[in-house]
């Protein structure tokens, strides 16, 4: 440790002079002198205590970060980072908001900025590392982590990343066009919310077989070219965290906005989370074979081909969600009466002229076209957004607040609660907690779950996700949206083993 002589109060003992900067407002800072005697014990404890006193934060809430944004979590971290004349960022629980450190040999990274919007939501180190890494990629000018930020296989999820002159298929991921649809159905909540009705529906619905509707003319009408995936995959949900769910209104928080949408406590709604299935995956595969995780120059023919294929996959994913919603409701002898929301949370779009980076505080002026990659981030310029929680938690129908939706939030909202547990951890913990997986077929909200795959039942249990209420309150506190209504799941369709089901 680099110590300083004569900086202690007695002018002789060795001590540390630190600058503490408030994470949320960088203009709030103060100087702290730690006496040499204090440093013999637990350094982290001393610094946290000093930060709590000076910044009037409850000690239990204090979090410390070094200037690269790395959290100082234990004594070893403190001994490495808390050197004399160090600057430390102090948060009262929220994550740090600091500029990404430029990586060696990568000049562009110096212009990039990292923002994490999370006051209360849990955001873990690996997710921040992935966001920082993305911020350092050539051409990346802005990397925003929303409160549902979590680590993906290699790129962060719950992130909006702006690039200049480059396109990164890896930052959109394989499920191009994945998104959330919400439609009103002709079912009424009074008749649907009866346990016997829900059990009967849970026993009967099935979305695994290829859809037998006229998909060709549907695709043609939407101007989508036929693909090898149409017959088998259109109208099917897919694995992972995709689902089709019946929901009812738990409570309305904004009467006017709900009335404008025609949202009522009387109706049952259907929510679909699905994407472009194998189609999007095949597109990413083509590019990752050639480029790995690297970017493609916007002007290149490859980038233009990717963007065209991407746009087709987004349209395909939209039709897919429509078919899934109609198909599910049809099996309950009802119909979708109105489509209220359909947004994609995995895509790349060109920023419009009024979406500029002027207020992003970048070191360099960015001229020309900027593309925004969303991986698990909902757009704020397409009306209401449904932010799902988990099959055992409430979902939130929110209205974005466009004036506050700027580069500071990547023109985005969270797309869900975001994963808290990796799949493996959720499976192992789930098995220990519920040796009989069947317990998971009814949630704490008494909603029914259709999932014949035991592993998936564990992996997707509600505890695998962050607290959606916390994610929403972070968005609301940051002025990014307001809640129209809170929705409760009553039946979630994940997957059915059709061979067993037909027996
Ligand atoms: N209402 C439900 N929400 C769910 C369920 N499973 C997951 N989720 C939420 O959706 C998002 C989607 O995330 P993505 O990264 O796969 O696009 C996820 O973060 C959860 O919050 C469910 O069964 N019902
Ligand atoms: Mn998705």
TrEMBL record:
Binding site for GMP: 241-245, 395, 415-418
Keyword Metal-binding on entry: yes
EC number: 6.5.1.8
Organism: Ceratodon purpureus (Fire moss)
Cofactor binding notes: Binds 2 manganese ions per subunit.
Chain positions recorded as Mn(2+) 1 binding sites: 175, 242
UniProt keywords, alphabetically: GTP-binding, Ligase, Manganese, Metal-binding, Nucleotide-binding
Domain of life per record: Eukaryota
Protein name: 3'-phosphate/5'-hydroxy nucleic acid ligase
InterPro entries xref list: RtcB, RtcB-like_sf, RtcB2
Cofactor(s) this protein cannot do without: Mn(2+)
Catalysed reactions, as listed in the record: a 3'-end 3'-phospho-ribonucleotide-RNA + a 5'-end dephospho-ribonucleoside-RNA + GTP = a ribonucleotidyl-ribonucleotide-RNA + GMP + diphosphate
């Amino acid at each position: 440790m680099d110590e300083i002589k004569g900086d202690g109060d007695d002018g002789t003992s060795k001590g540390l002079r630190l600058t503490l900067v408030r994470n949320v407002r960088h203009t709030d800072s103060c100087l702290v002198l730690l006496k040499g005697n204090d440093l013999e014990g637990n350094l982290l404890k001393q610094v946290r205590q000093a930060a709590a006193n000076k910044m009037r934060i409850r000690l239990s809430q204090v979090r410390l970060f070094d200037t690269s944004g790395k959290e100082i979590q234990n004594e070893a971290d403190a001994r490495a980072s808390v050197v004399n004349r160090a600057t430390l960022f102090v948060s009262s629980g929220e994550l740090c908001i600091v500029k990404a450190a430029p990586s060696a040999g990568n000049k562009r990274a110096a212009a990039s900025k990292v923002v994490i919007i999370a006051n209360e939501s849990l955001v873990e180190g690996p997710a921040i590392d992935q966001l920082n890494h993305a911020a350092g990629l050539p051409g990346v000018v802005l990397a925003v982590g929303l409160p549902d930020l979590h680590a993906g296989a290699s790129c962060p999820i719950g992130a909006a990343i702006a690039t200049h002159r480059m396109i990164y298929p890896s930052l959109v991921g394989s499920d191009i066009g994945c998104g959330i649809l919400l439609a009103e159905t002709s079912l009424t909540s009074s008749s649907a919310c009866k346990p016997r009705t829900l059990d009967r529906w849970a026993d009967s619905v099935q979305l695994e077989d290829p859809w037998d509707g006229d998909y060709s003319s549907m695709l043609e009408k939407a101007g989508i070219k036929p693909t090898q995936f149409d017959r088998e995959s259109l109208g099917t949900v897919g694995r992972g965290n995709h689902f089709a769910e019946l929901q009812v209104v738990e409570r309305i928080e904004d009467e006017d906005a709900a009335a404008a949408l025609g949202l009522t406590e009387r109706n049952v709604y259907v929510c679909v989370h699905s994407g472009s299935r194998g189609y999007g995956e095949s597109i990413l595969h083509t590019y990752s074979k050639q480029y790995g995780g690297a970017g493609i120059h916007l002007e290149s023919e490859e980038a233009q081909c990717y963007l065209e294929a991407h746009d087709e996959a987004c349209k395909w994913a939209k039709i897919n969600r429509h078919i899934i919603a109609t198909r599910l409701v049809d099996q309950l002898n009802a119909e979708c009466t109105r489509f209220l929301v359909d947004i994609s949370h995995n895509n790349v779009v060109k920023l419009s002229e009024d979406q500029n980076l002027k207020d992003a505080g970048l070191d360099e002026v960015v001229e020309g076209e900027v593309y925004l990659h969303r991986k698990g981030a909902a757009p704020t310029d397409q009306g209401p957004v449904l932010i799902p929680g988990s099959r055992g938690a409430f979902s939130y129908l929110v209205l974005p607040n466009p004036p506050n939706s700027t580069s500071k939030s990547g023109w985005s909202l969270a797309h869900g609660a975001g994963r808290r547990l990796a799949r493996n951890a959720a499976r192992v913990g789930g098995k220990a907690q519920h040796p009989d997986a069947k317990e998971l077929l009814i949630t704490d909200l008494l909603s029914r779950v259709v999932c014949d795959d035991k592993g998936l039942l564990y992996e997707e249990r509600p505890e695998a996700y962050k607290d959606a209420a916390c994610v929403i309150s972070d968005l609301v506190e940051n002025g990014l949206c307001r809640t129209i209504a809170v929705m409760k799941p009553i039946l979630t369709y994940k997957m059915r083993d059709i061979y067993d089901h037909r027996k």
